[in-house]
Amino acid sequence: MSFIYKVFHDVAFFSWDTSLAIANLVLPSRAEGKVTPEGHPGFGGKWPEFVPRKEGDSRCSCPALNAMANHGILPHDGKNISFKDMNRLIRTTYNFSPSFCYFVPNFAAKFLKRDYNKDTFNLDELDLHNLGIEHDASLCREDAHFCPDQSVIATDMIKELLASASGKDKDGNPLLTVKDLSRFSAKRRVDSSEKNPEYKLDFQHKMFGSSNCSTMLTIFGGRVKDLETILLEERLPENWESRVRKPFGLTLAHFNLTTVMWVELGINEKKYIAERKAAEEAAASNEAEAEAEADAAAESSVHKSDSPTN
Ligand code: HEM
């Protein structure tokens, strides 16, 4: 791609995305229950049957794409998916903007060195470590160094993430917040950097990390109950629809400015290390106190049994 074409393409793309973001601000949102367009899988909250992955099916590190394959929205075997189909299907399933749905599959085609217009890919091919989108210290997968098959769901890690949710909706149900994602990301980055001898996370992959996990707050509204289903089972909850009701879907501009940027800016690894140290010191001092109390109790019972009145 020539330099001039690239500049022209990027300017056109960002103008398109910005105009959709502006249109979203002035046009009414879709009614609740009408987010998934008529005639598409999921219309009226009815998702095609969920069939767990079978031996030989291709799956990847992205819970949202795996869920689409598990419901047969993408081919169930996760193979020979055209980039153009993925564009159309992530749009109708999750209500991302046409600009976003053009941008990400194009980016994937580029890092896989394929032709966006003609070629296909298998889901597992998306897991090109540190060269594509997949990276260390993510919130739903162990690092590739420990778990080369990035389709393996990190169940305990996801449960820990969801248990850290500090928000509540109006009915008192738990909600994941921007602060929760920043805190958990800081923990993952510190833990991975200490344990993984191959740990690497450059600026671009930090931004991918914050961007991927921010979909938990936008598309899934931070709702822990829905996130349990999508992240732990890679299934779309019954009667679910995207929490983004904007008529042109979630644009890159809106997503980055309202969520991704705040998650990334809130990640404070030094603060996490200081909190962890304080928690360890408090635990050690509680342990020492408990030991001292136990010793004192044992000593006093010895004195009692030595007493002449016994
Ligand atoms: C073309 C479309 C997409 C591609 C190529 C893609 C690719 C990826 C990849 C490679 C990862 C793993 C990154 C890592 O190492 O942590 C990932 C994670 C993730 N993606 Fe996607 N994805 C796409 C669409 C979506 C959509 C539409 C959603 C939401 C509705 C989504 C939600 C997520 C979530 C929640 C994670 C997990 C983040 C984490 O573990 O920290 N993705 N995606």
UniProtKB/TrEMBL annotation:
Start and end residues of each stretch annotated as Disordered: 281-310
Cofactor(s) named in the record: heme b
PROSITE patterns per the UniProt record, alphabetical: HEME_HALOPEROXIDASE
E.C. designation(s): 1.11.2.1
Superkingdom: Eukaryota
Domain called Heme haloperoxidase family profile: residue spans: 46-257
Keyword Iron in annotation: yes
Biased composition (Basic and acidic residues): 301-310
Coiled-coil intervals, chain numbering: none
GO molecular function annotation: metal ion binding; peroxidase activity
Alphabetical UniProt keywords: Heme, Iron, Metal-binding, Oxidoreductase, Peroxidase
Similarity comment: family membership: Belongs to the chloroperoxidase family.
Name of the protein in question: Heme-thiolate peroxidase
